[in-house]
Write a structure and sequence with these properties.
A: about 270 residues, mainly alpha, MetI-like fold, two-stranded antiparallel sheet, globular, B: about 300 residues, two-stranded antiparallel ribbon
């Protein structure tokens, strides 16, 4: 690595330290609050819990309405990721390898759905999924999130696939591979990191979205993020419980980041660097 | 690098086409249907023609004024966060460590805010910025500055902007970092031999190489900030007053709060058309930059 690629100045290190501190500070405060009693939260501002307590976490793990929220969320996120990637793989291959009638318009139309405001779709989705009997099931949320995740997955995978030389396809055809066999045995391993990155992004955008998830569920499939909005009780806000639930929603994301940390930067560039 | 023409490729695209059409076209038709009708509840609908659209696009009416206000507010918000997040993101990307365990640690911390559910982002900033229980709110007030984001519109705006910078700057930074990593060492060596200044290296080598990823960053940040809903909804609920009521918040208030389906539908369509138009502009710019680059790399 050349000298220029090194964080050449003390200024660079300072920028990083300040920026990372800025990122961590609010999260530290949330964790701190989740370990305090509500009495301590409401009466004083303390930098660490004087009277450390796990009561909020215990409540979440023992109360079915809380932990089922996590299970519901993870169910529709997993369903959505699988559906999005499975459908996007062949489509991305088509976009990366062939020209066809309407190619450019189709690609733009797909992309425009990634950009459509979920608020526009909330009410019509409610009507649609009620009409076909999927309302309040994980399927409704998983399918609704396909609206923006499928186009995104196509976009990312197309970028990675275009990086694979076309000679490989041709050689495989000459060697007598059928298309499905070539695609699964040879092509998919070549873009494995791209599939991982696309899955990461589908997970991410399905996990963080709330507006549609909230509109499409009532009680059975209610996601954790919605359960959290119930912490207002007669005695006021249950801040400690809210903070503990918040901390728990950060954990799945943090785990996923850890697994894909080497691909994050390339992934955020959607395979287009 | 011309791709072979093959219309059977449609077979491979068909599943994606069908599911996105199911999720996009069916609901949009519902919206179109609502937008030309009025309802007094009980599922009774009356033909209203283009009435809602006329009202929406005429700023002198209650609905039109409200829409225009929310639109300006949203454009201002997008402009502010882009003006902060893009330069800051570039600066962070340039300052990032390049080797060793620090890279992985930095990447993980930076990506963390991106994977927090949006309402939890709102919650985090709520408990962080509240004057009574939050560290930031408490500290600012302790310094003698009167700060209360639930009562003061300016404080509410600043809080939401800082929250968005916290939430999304890393996206810009990670994109730029990916762009920087693709620059071959030889470029830097050449620059060193030529005795180029740090600034010259930035403007002639690093910035041009980041152009493509920066476009993606600006596109994503603009679009996402233009449809921001959950974070300000949790933090301020659109208040104080209407100070932070952005387009999506206003739309959901009308649609699910007041159940004014006709108005909400007309607003949805206009809102969606604005997004579509902006999206088209960005897409054209992006694909043109893409072709330019390909031509640079493979002349002739």
């Amino acid at each position: 690595m050349s000298a220029h690629m090194q964080p050449s100045s003390r200024g660079g290190t300072l920028v990083m330290v300040l920026y990372l501190a800025f990122l961590i500070l609010p999260i530290y405060w949330l964790v701190n609050m989740s370990l305090k009693t509500n009495f301590e939260i409401n009466t004083t501002v303390t930098l660490w819990p004087n009277d450390i307590t796990f009561e909020h976490y215990i409540k979440i793990f023992t109360d079915a309405s809380w932990y089922s929220g996590y299970i519901n969320s993870l169910t529709y996120v997993a369903l959505n990721t699988v559906i999005s990637i499975t459908l996007a793989l062949p489509a991305a291959y088509a976009f990366s390898r062939y020209s066809f009638v309407g190619e450019k318009h189709l690609f733009f139309w797909l992309l425009s759905n990634r950009m459509a405001p979920p608020a526009v779709f909330a009410l019509p989705f409610f009507n649609l999924y009620s009409a076909i009997g999927l309302f309040d099931t994980p399927w409704a949320v998983a399918l609704a999130h396909c609206l923006f995740n499928v186009p995104l997955a196509v976009w990312i995978l197309e970028g990675f696939m275009s990086g694979v030389p076309r000679e490989i396809d041709e050689t495989a055809a000459i060697d007598g591979y059928s298309f499905p066999r070539f695609f699964i045995k040879i092509f998919m391993p070549l873009i494995a990191s791209g599939i991982g990155v696309a899955a990461f992004f589908c997970f991410m955008f399905s996990w963080v979205e709330l507006l549609l998830a909230r509109t499409l569920t009532a009680s059975n499939a209610k996601p954790i993020a919605v359960t959290m909005t119930r912490t207002v009780s007669a005695a006021g806000m249950d801040w400690g419980l809210l903070a503990a639930a918040g901390v728990l929603t950060i954990i799945p994301g943090a785990l996923v980041i850890w697994f894909v940390r080497n691909y994050i930067a390339k992934g955020f560039a959607l395979g287009r660097v | 690098m011309d791709k072979p023409v093959n219309n059977r490729a449609w077979l491979l695209v068909a599943p994606v086409f069908l599911i996105v059409a199911f999720s996009a076209i069916v609901p949009i038709m519902t919206v179109v249907n609502y937008s030309v009708q009025d309802t007094f509840g009980n599922n009774q609908f009356f033909w209203n023609g283009l009435g809602w659209f006329q009202e929406l696009l005429d700023p002198s009416t209650e609905l039109g004024g409200r829409f225009l206000d929310a639109l300006w507010r949203n454009l201002l918000f997008s402009a502010i966060i882009l003006a902060i997040e893009v330069p800051l993101g570039i600066l962070v990307a340039l300052s990032m460590p390049r080797e060793g365990w620090k890279v992985a640690a930095t990447l993980v911390v930076m990506a963390l805010p991106l994977l927090i559910p949006w309402n939890v982002v709102g919650t985090i900033w709520q408990v962080f910025a509240r004057a009574d229980i939050g560290l930031a709110g408490w500290a600012i007030n302790a310094l003698g500055i009167d700060y209360n984001y639930t009562g003061d519109p300016l404080a509410a705006w600043i809080t939401i902007v800082v929250m968005d910078v916290w939430h999304w700057t890393s996206l810009v930074a990670l994109l730029c970092y990916a762009g920087l990593k693709s620059i071959p060492d030889a470029y830097y060596q050449a620059a060193r031999i030529d005795g180029a200044s740090r600034w010259a290296v930035f403007t002639t080598i690093q910035l041009p190489k980041m152009k493509r990823v920066l476009l993606i960053a600006v596109l994503l940040r603009f679009m996402d900030s233009f449809m921001i809903y959950t974070e300000p909804f949790v933090l301020t609920g659109g208040g104080p007053g209407n100070a932070t009521t952005f387009l999506s918040i206003d739309l959901v208030k009308i649609a699910l709060g007041q159940f004014d389906l006709g108005k909400a539908a007309a607003m949805s369509l206009v809102y969606n058309l604005i997004v579509l138009a902006l999206c088209w502009v960005f897409y054209t710019v992006m694909t043109n930059t893409g072709t330019e680059r390909r031509q640079e790399e493979n002349p002739a």
